[in-house]
Amino acid sequence: MKRKQFEGREYDEVLKSTRAYYESFSDGYVRFYENWSKGEEEFSNPTYKEGYDEIARFLGKTAASGEMVIDIGCGIGHWSTLLAEKDARVAGLDNLPSMIRKSAERSEAFNLKSRIYLFLSDGFHLPFRDEVFDGATLNWVLAHIPMTRNVSFMNEVGRVVRSKGWLFISDSYWRGQDGGKEQIQIRQTDGKEHMVYKYYYNLNELKQLVERTFGEVELVRPLHYELICIAKKR
Question: How many domains does the chain have?
């Protein structure tokens, strides 16, 4: 995968390409999470698998039985399924039809359709009233939100979570990757190249953003390649 520093001021083109990549890669993500469960391919690296295992463990401990949780950028529904298996009720939301279809297939396969409700929408305009959720989760989502729009995005996340509710973030973080903190990654799928936007937060940056837009950060923990951030709403 090629990387280059993002130097533009207009995000629309690269975000359109990012969306096209993920829309066409839903089957790839099904295989990705299957590889995790089997410890195969990229997850044959024990430190990589350990990071995902740790995220699953922390997320499972964060959500309480009976809570209503919104999974923003739910993708193929892996994390929604994990939450529903912990007896939470989950609103899975994604702006890509292919991801919603895969998530619906997964919830049916796991016999969890009664606990997972799916919505085709973007995270900047959540189709819910204020303070209706006990918690929210952003798994590998925030890094794809442009820096110029991250405050408005996070404010919208906070709007739908009740007072004293929680936020769980897992994502990549800044470790000196090639291409710089704000970058474009050139990824291929279905024989086509796509530009994928990515911003790598350092731990202090992420903590400041969450405290500015959501509430008190209770945990920021770097793992091998990922980080976990847990916060409580004011």
Answer: 1
